[in-house]
Amino acid sequence: MTLDNIKKIVLVLSGKGGVGKSSITTQLALTLSLQGHSVGVLDVDLTGPSIPRFFGIEQSKVRQAVGGFIPVDVHDAQTLPSRNSNGNTPGQMVGALSCMSLGFLLASRNDAVIWRGPKKTAMVRQFLTDVLWPPLDFLLIDTPPGTSDEHISLLENLLKQTTAPTSPPNQLAGAVVVTTPQAISISDVKKELNFCKKTGIRVLGVVENMAGFVCPNCSECNDIFDRGGGEVMARDFEVPFLGSVPIDPAFVQLIEEGTRPVYPKGTVIAGKDVSAASNGASNGQANGTTSQLLVDKYRDCSLCPLFDGIVSRVVADIRSRD
């Protein structure tokens, strides 16, 4: 089975669409890579496969080999340039990152996927059995909203494969659940937490997305959608609260245009100064060297230190149960 190469599998779930599951999945993957882990991302949002666009590889196509599909590489394991202007700090080692999505199999990104439940179920099953992943520390699975056919098929096949005698222990580590602060989102995401409880999926934690707005013209971060609803929900369900993530236009520009994030002097997010001057190098450049890799540019994003803390908590929790 192709999942045998994978040490840990983490689902990214939400009961509501539009809360930013793919954005959270992308940043979890980039942060795990920055922490030195080898990472794969499987996109099972069949009617809205957005992972290829998030990683800037939507023009890529998967290759077929004997036994299945070869996922698309985002970047190999390598050392990123030092961010210290004096050159005395060694570069950062990053783990390899690869992706698989239905988006790679469509003739055009504008093609609509109009499938009935049985065909969706068959596609999910094929993704879990026919993708030839390299050895991975983590596989993140970006799911569609709700508790539909895809979810049921995904869990049935995952539980079957991850409980096989040849599978690594505790291979299905659990789920990260994404919400936004508004009450209407919270009410839908509560259903997802109940879904996890009924199906026996451990909730690794709740992330409250869109909790604030990082102004690109000043150093303020304002709570335009309020905040705190995700934390209250996590406390009510007795699951970990991993943190609040604001909307950052610089991250949007990074994904859409490939522009390296830059912030006004004095911009502080979660107690950390994220302006260029605080990094010891202007605009992410050091010693005349730059990298065009998404993972390198992401290091200058205000959200990177937030996700470093979120991922560190999740990884520590997973390891504590081995």
UniProtKB/TrEMBL annotation:
Chain residues that bind ATP: G15, K16, G17, G18, V19, G20, K21, S22
Swiss-Prot/TrEMBL GO biological process terms: iron-sulfur cluster assembly
Residue positions binding [4Fe-4S] cluster: C215, C218
Localization terms from the record: Cytoplasm
InterPro entries in the cross-refs: Mrp-like_CS (IPR000808), Mrp/NBP35_ATP-bd (IPR019591), NUBP2/Cfd1_eukaryotes (IPR028600), P-loop_NTPase (IPR027417), YlxH/NBP35 (IPR033756)
GO cellular component, one term: cytosol
Highest taxon of source: Eukaryota
Keywords: 4Fe-4S, ATP-binding, Cytoplasm, Hydrolase, Iron, Iron-sulfur, Metal-binding, Nucleotide-binding
Principal place of residence: cytoplasm
GO molecular function, one term: ATP-dependent FeS chaperone activity
Function description: Component of the cytosolic iron-sulfur (Fe/S) protein assembly (CIA) machinery. Required for maturation of extramitochondrial Fe-S proteins. The NBP35-CFD1 heterotetramer forms a Fe-S scaffold complex, mediating the de novo assembly of an Fe-S cluster and its transfer to target apoproteins.
Protein family: Belongs to the Mrp/NBP35 ATP-binding proteins family. NUBP2/CFD1 subfamily.
PANTHER family: CYTOSOLIC FE-S CLUSTER ASSEMBLY FACTOR NUBP2 (PTHR23264:SF19), NUCLEOTIDE-BINDING PROTEIN NBP35 YEAST -RELATED (PTHR23264)
Protein name as annotated: P-loop containing nucleoside triphosphate hydrolase protein
Protein's organism: Lophiotrema nucula
